[in-house]
Amino acid sequence: xxxxxxxxxxxxxxxxxxxxxxxxxxxxxxxxxxxxxxxxxxxxxxxxxxxxxxxxxxxxxxxxxxxxxxxxxxxxxxxxxxxxxxxxxxxxxxxxxxxxxxxxxxxxxxxxxxxxxxxxxxxxxxxxxxxxxxxxxxxxxxxxxxxxxxxxxxxxxxxxxxxxxxxxxxxxxxxxxxxxxxxxxxxxxxxxxxxxxxxxxxxxxxxxxxxxxxxxxxxxxxxxxxxxxxxxxxxxxxxxxxxxxxxxxxxxxxxxxxxxxxxxxxxxxxxxxxxxxxxxxxxxxxxxxxxxxxxxxxxxxxxxxxxxxxxxxxxxxxxxxxxxxxxxxxxxxxxxxxxxxxxxxxxxxxxxxxxxxxxxxxxxxxxxxxxxxxxxxx
Length: 378
Prior knowledge:
The structure is a single chain. The chain is an alpha+beta fold. The protein folds into 3 domains: 119 residues, no CATH class; 71 residues, no CATH class; 136 residues, no CATH class. A 6-stranded antiparallel beta barrel has the order 3-4-5-10-7-6. Strands 2-11-13-12 form a 4-stranded antiparallel β-sheet. Helix 1 packs antiparallel against helix 6. The N terminus is likely disordered.
């Protein structure tokens, strides 16, 4: 059975890309809730981190070259009343790790959160290990949680007799509900005003949000400070019930507006276009040059003297490189002004361009001033 040809693979990729671009050209879904586009200023998660040891590894821990692991083992044993010289430590079942986590806002002491564990030395795998008690501190140096538990790794690394097999990244894992919160972060909700921060700053969205808030509160207590913040004056009826005010505001629906943007990935050839992308009349000519080098066998036959050649002379088989170049020529296509991404996708597909070619075409259109959208390359 014949496999897929280059042409079929190219057009299959273009078909998928065309469907994605056509879907992005559909009308907007309409209003969105305020909780999806804005946050209350001052209410955020806090990042935690700490240094610890993972024990119980099956010979896949740090080697003796990792000096800080030996010092950590000696220090841990010293706190337990066992004195040992760090230079005498030879433990391959221990790995030094960095433990990270996020402390949600309003989390109370006694609740549990997930933590991530990542190897700091040259350990091959953390599979089967147990994280010892590790204090987790924030940027202010205060300890907010303590982590401990079995490490779950989504991969493996097995080696024997010089051969090895690995899957995913076995040097990092997670401990579900592995940290206990010791100190919570509870921002104060009392105040004369509440500031709502937009996750994607936009003047139009901020103005519409302020209008929607004034309509819901029956006054003019909300005003847009800038493209990223809307300040709301707390009404008298909600002075003693700030939670009720926020519960009422976060379910309001607002017409969010986003700038026209095209995101492309040169590594994978992915192109994602948002709504509102417009192009000006432009002519595009796209062609490719395919270069290949093939090796052909060459046999060197020495001359014979009636079958009595020198014993040091023999037939030698070699290879000779034969380069070739094929330049693909395509006609120039004039694209009219269009207001939909679907028309743009159809016009580019008519050139027979692949997904990676579209990246170069869009970059050239942006440089020529024919693409009215923010082009972001990731």
